[in-house]
Amino acid sequence: MTKSIDATGASKTFLRFGVSMTAVALAAGAFAVPAMAQDTAAAAPADGDVVVVTGFRGSLQTAISEKKRSTDMVDVIKAEDIGQFPDLNLAESLQRIPGVSIDRDGGEGKQITVRGLNSEFSRTRLNGLEALATTGSKDASGGTNRSRGFDFNVFAADLFNSLTVRKSMSAEVEEGSLGATVDLQTARPFDYKGFTLASSLQFGYNDKAEQFEPRGTFMIANRWADGKLGALLSVAYGERLVIEDSTNTTRWENSSSAGTAGRFQSYSANGGTSFINIPTGTAAITDPEAQKLVNSLHPRIPRYNHFETQQKRLGVTASFQARPWDGGTFTLDAMHATFEADRDEWEIEALSFSRAGQGLPQTDVYNYTIDDKGTLIKGSFNDVDIRAEHRFDDLTTTFDQLNLTWDQKWGDRLTSKLLIGSSTSDQDTPEQTTFTFESYNVDGYSYDYTDMTAPVFNYGSSSTNCQPNQACYWTYSTSTAAGDASLIRLRPQNVKNEFSTARLDLAFDINDNLTLKGGLSNKKYNFNSSEFGRYTSNVNTRDENATTTGSALLASTINGDIAKFSQEVTVGGNTYLVPNLDLIRSTFNYDCRCTNANGTFTMNSTNSSSRTNTRFASEEDAGVWLQLDFRGDVAGMPFRGNIGTREVDTSLVATGYIGTPTGFQLTTVERTYHDSLPSLNFVLEPHDNVYVRFATAKTMARPTLLSLIPGGGSVNTTANTITTGNPSLNPTRADTTDLSIEWYPDRDTLFTVAFFQKKLNSYIQSRTQNIRLADLGYDPAEFGEAADAVYAVTTPVNTPGGDLKGYEISLQKPFTFLPGFLSKTGGIVNYTHVESQIDYFTTAAATTTTKANLLGLSPEAWNVTLYYEGDALAGRVAFAYRDGYLSALSPGSGADFWGKNETFNVDAQLTWTINPQFTFILEGVNLTDEPDDRFISYNTPQGNTASDLLYDYGHSGRQYYVGFRYKY
User: How far is 472 from 458, CA to CA, in rounded Å?
Assistant: First the structure.
């Protein structure tokens, strides 16, 4: 089934482009005046000149020079030396830029937020081409990345020699960003004078993993034929074992729905001596204490977690450059990266609190405490089902990019740049397996969340009077008679993002003061997401437990020797038995995707668990742009700037599974829309080395492809409901204004104050609307419905946006005014304040809204880097603070938001230059062992008002590196 949606009214890109260029032509006439003063912007190096900068202070000088020279609002980070980037991780470098905050996963920087806008609203270009690298992570950190947000932990930082964050838009920069465009540039042979070699070898040590692991880099480059030919190869490889201990609730839930009993069978008012029944089903509850319990929030699955992730990161770049004739340069860049993360996850948890079926309620509660926000923060319980869980994820991201650039000067006035290339990011999880043991009807279980960051659990005694570290406590169950059957979940999955780009840019110098630029671009983005899960005879139903798919042989074999098929693991400071997944896999071959003597392990991608993440989309963006660069003098004050527009058509082809009463149908929707994106950047120098910058633009960020694709949800013909994606979603469009004042008193010093405002014209939230089946493209007769049948459809829609505003203050300064060795110190300080609130619908069917901060926005953030750079000894320490922020809307179980509490990270580096070739290195990352502290908030009809309940809290340890660098 194919549907077509045209959101542009058959608009013609070039017709609109011609109309829009009228304003640019008028502006060209206005600025076509001779210069009255020499432009003071620093000139770019002449063709063939090479600038080699060494040392942290030298890298800061170069970065300041590039910022000063730029017309757009940019911030730059440069390599300290050949093959030496200032930080281990690109995201950790980015956090030194004003307005940029990072989110860490396992103690390592992963994604960025720019001026309150999360990674969905930023774009990343690698060697000039838009690219997207995604990874998988633990569920509490977001799981598999199916968004447009770039995961910077895929790449080793030493592969790059510069990083630029573009905060204002100009017509020559491709569309797609509201927050920033991040440019990553790898090294090229023409960056160096001749033969160049650099390498490093380090050993890393994590104080939780307590073992040493290698990390190394190698780069070699040379030029021949009088410098007209050059080649470069760089390699970076590292291993890291990440061990995390955490506690998690998955969410919090009421023990009831609409005031009726759900989780608890009875309660005790005398410490467990006697119990009072709580009415079940829809029976009225007249007992005030029972009603209070029924309305209270309890942890959905209170548990301890232990993660062990073995990471391996490989990066390879190659570049070949040639100048076959004067004015012409050809560059061929290639990049390959792999990021492997084999993760074992062990958990011990109380499962009963998440269920309301299978003979429940059966749990009794006593010695409990309900706080003034309606939260059952402490309690003891009988008849609780305990689960021991072992999950294994085999995670691999493979990234490849190849691009060709031709830069050409055509005489004295005309230059061109042709860029052609493509990239692929393949995030593959061939195995994601969960296996569990159960212990039913445990008495004496208790939890205590008085301290949310350090809850205390007691797992009581089993019906066999055994403890959780004994095999007799556990069973592998294929029956639901006592509770949930044991879990055997198989969910292999894959996410592939592909970009192919062709771009031609032209620039013509009209005179010394005016340059007319223009170009064409075409970019195609393919998104392919798939997930598989177990199924039996009914292909539309998931089957993740052992009831029908586990044979008697598998159950009897495991239960015959639980001790053999389990392993000891220390979780939460205590030792428990959990399933030994390696032995179970080798014994029963559960990953065969077949039916064998041990059970049914077949899989498909259309069962109810998998089809949500099985979707495909292709997005093609055809753009044309025109821009006028100008410079001049007014009242003795030099100025420069650019004005232009980018016109772009976006074509979307989205495919997903749409449910019907007879099954699931693969459905494709086609849609096009148009954007006109004018922009202006203006720089005035009212006094020597004082710059006033102003920028304004219309910008857009396209929706996540997963939200655009039809289907992926469910159809209920009894309740007349449908959940689906929405191909008609419009981008989030914004009007942006920026103003900055910058002072450059010398080449080492920078002081800036910047103000920014963005008007978000829309936002994207899930809403439920009554829509005729026929209007959705369905045949009502297939549903057994009348022609005018209406269903309640839950889908992402564009809702009103809001204003975002804030300011940044930044200072870079060497402390040369201090006496003695202190004169070789310096610092970088920046502070960012952002405000933006959105009216959120906290449920899809809500008729009222809740005002809260924009997702991903930290109202306050600051960074301080202090450094010392002597002749031989150098060092620096970096402090980064980020205010708490909201990360997800309506995560389930009646919650309003997920979020993350404030973070304060400290990283440090010490180097000793033994001689011009050898340098000793000592580095430390996450020196405060900052916790990953995530919360969940509620405001429910039952009166639950807690805004900081525990979602996940864990530590990943401090990371140290020691080694040396060599260069020739």
Answer: 17
